[in-house]
Amino acid sequence: MPARKQPEDVPVYLFTGFLEGGKTKFIQETMEDPRFNKGERTLLLLCEEGEEEYDISTYPAKNVYQEVIEDESELNPEHLTELLEKLRRAVTNAAAALGATAEVTTPGGVIPAAEYDDELTAEVAECIVEVVGEEKLAKELVNPGGEDFHYFVNKYPHIKAAYFGVGAAAAPGLHHQDMQLNKEALPSGTAVLVKMVERKLG
């Protein structure tokens, strides 16, 4: 019996930038480059629509699917699951039209969207202010990135969750193989966690 082929990892690319900074043009040119997209099934999630429009017809691979996220509230497990099912139907129907079959798998499942508790998040913000001052409390960051931490609430909905990041000047980028960061910022993150523990345990 032949060995079962192991599922491959699915890469996720996050494009961010300033308003009217040329993101649409950059993404369009990237998707047109055959060195980037060699025919893999691709779901293009748009969290905003720029002045220019994407022209999927110019991509070397024709199995690119585009979906627009109108509001940040749509970044939830239910909606992301709907998009995944829509992609599955498109792939299986396209294969059936050619007399073939296709299967879309997600190794390990889909990383769920963030679901944070408002009261707990406010408490974390208060602890951050106590440790580093209100001027260093950044505004809430909302983006389409995934995070393993979100599995906790997805699996145990009764758990109240909050999430915060420590500004440590990571360069050239978070998770980059050559990433360097300011380690002097780490004690501040530890102090915030200690403050939270003291609040909860007294």
What does this structure look like?
This protein has a two-stranded parallel ribbon. It is mainly α. It is about 35% helix and about 5% strand.
In brief:
The protein has five helices and two strands. The protein has helices at residues 23-32, 77-97, 118-132, 151-155, 186-201; strands spanning 42-46, 64-68.
Which residues form runs of ≥5 with pLDDT under 50? none
According to DSSP, the number of beta strands is: 2
- Average pLDDT value? 80
Strand line-up of the largest beta sheet: 1-2
Compute the CA-based radius of gyration.
21 Å
Describe the largest sheet. 2 strands, parallel
Oligomeric composition of the shown chains: single chain
As a percent range, the share of helical residues equals 25-40%
Question: N-to-C terminal Cα separation, in Å?
Answer: 60 Å
Judged by helices, strands and strand pairing, the structural class is mainly alpha
Percent of residues in beta strands: under 5%
Q: How many helices in DSSP terms?
A: 5
Please tell me what the overall shape is: globular
Order of helices and strands: HEEHHHH
